[in-house]
Model the fold of this input.
Amino acid sequence: MTSAVDEAGLEAHFEATIAHKDRIEPRDWMPEKYRRTLVRQIAQHAHSEIIGMQPEGNWISRAPSLRRKAILLAKVQDEAGHGLYLYSATETLGVTRTELTERLISGAQKYSSIFNYPTLSYADVGTIGWLVDGAAICNQVPLCRTSFGPYGRAMIRICKEESFHQRQGYELLMTMMRGTDEQRAMVQESVDRFWWPSLMMFGPPDEASPNTAQSMAWGIKTHTNDELRRRFVDMTVPQAEALGVTLPDPDLAWNEERQAHDFGEVDWDEFWKVVGGDGPCNAQRVAHRKKAWDDGAWVREAATAFARKQEETADHGGAPTTPTTSAGPASRTAEEETA
Ligand SMILES: [Fe+2]
Ligand SMILES: [Fe+2]
Done:
């Protein structure tokens, strides 16, 4: 058992590590609240990657060309990978992927509210890449320097892939804008639907975000929600101009004095409604995830039985067996979950 004196020393060491902007690693001592905050934040991020496969996965079978299908398939698979790195980072904090998935399905843990909106046209694939992955990049680039080592390292790799996602979305929209009037109208209609939900991705305004101050003190977060939202608007407005679309905000204007954009107020009632489970697709998203989890039960059982058998063989001095059926079904489940 750790004595009070030891605990004070450990805490001082933890605080010093944070102050030096060094990383906290899984075996290091950390305050219980720091651990819990990280589990909540990383799990919510992992769930967003996995649930986020659904709105775009919806269009894989209806992509307008083989090239578009290949790009979209690669993008959705990347999101599965992001979810898995992040669940692994959470596992280093002592919570299993199974527990986290159960918390997602039961509604005890959240995912980003943006994925509760439907994808109604193929232009939404482009808009999601441009705006949703764009907002994710704004949120996530600072997280590459977050204080918890496994999370920061996962973010470095994820951010590289997110910038590919944003470019593919922008390139798709640019192609459509060079097309017919109908295609241009499709892009505008899609941007009209996704603009405000994208701004909501940064979370509630600072005054309604009670955890921010502590997360910043611990180096988990490095910028507030409103700072990141403003950065996203400033980054996106010139891109919208280059694309030739109008962002649906009459209050959006350049402020010469601040050298930044002014913009309208997000509909926070809508945000809280969607976060609270009452968005257009909340029930559908969670039900789909639950079905995929239930359908995959046999794969998890088989993998566990196989691992046990391998352990027993090793205990008896035999060589570990190689799976004769290969990892076929198990390795395919992540992709199948989007179907
Ligand atoms: Fe992602
Ligand atoms: Fe992405």
Notes: The radius of gyration is 22 Å.
